[in-house]
Design a protein that fits this description.
single chain; 3 helices; Secreted effector protein pipB2 fold
């Protein structure tokens, strides 16, 4: 297959499959669809958190807003429903400033031609390259199908944020740092008789 440039990314949880469906929309109007299991998502998240910490550039946690765009989560924000309109417009500006070449306002184009007969089920995921300009993941399926997805720095951050959102929707504990959530303190007085 000929390499093509990434135009759009889509990552969504499919409850029936209990997997994430990762779609990569390409410039030649095709798409690559990959099923990502919880195990694969956990390994990708661990790598992304480690690589971001290594360059002292933490991933920005975001939430989906009512318009389908992404809003960064600030320490005083607990969920997307608690974002005020004023904060939402400021968050959009902050996200656009952090990733000026990315457009979060357009819906994923569903009429792309698939490069595979069916979405591949990734059983192995390897990081082939991770540097300041390029992040390359290779997904492998049991059928011997390999797919490489190459992200620039902005797409790497966007993919990490999408993975966080999808894992939250799936209620998967994949090691995503959730410092923006305040967990209630459980206090119980145990009495022994």
């Amino acid at each position: 297959m000929q390499p093509a440039v990434i135009e759009q990314l889509n990552l969504a949880f499919d409850a029936d499959q209990d997997r994430l469906l990762f779609k990569v929309g390409l410039s030649d109007n095709t798409e690559l669809a990959i099923w990502i299991t919880r195990r694969i998502a956990k390994s990708i998240t661990a790598w992304l958190q480690g690589s971001q910490a290594a360059v002292d550039l933490p991933m920005q946690v975001v939430v989906m807003n009512a318009q389908g765009g992404l809003d960064p989560v600030t320490p005083n924000t607990i969920s997307a429903t608690s974002i005020s309109p004023e904060a939402s417009s400021g968050a959009e500006a902050q996200l656009q400033a952090a990733a000026p070449n990315l457009d979060f306002s357009k819906q994923y184009l569903a009429n792309r031609t698939s490069r595979l007969q069916a979405p591949m089920l990734a059983t192995i995921c390897k990081v082939l390259s991770d540097n300041a300009t390029q992040f390359v993941l290779e997904f492998t399926a049991k059928e011997g199908i390999n797919a490489q997805v190459s992200f620039n720095a902005e797409l790497k951050i966007a993919f990490g944020n999408m993975l966080q959102l999808a894992a939250k929707e799936a209620a998967w504990d994949i090691g995503v740092q959730n410092s923006h959530f305040v967990t209630p303190q459980m206090r119980s007085n145990q009495v022994l008789h």
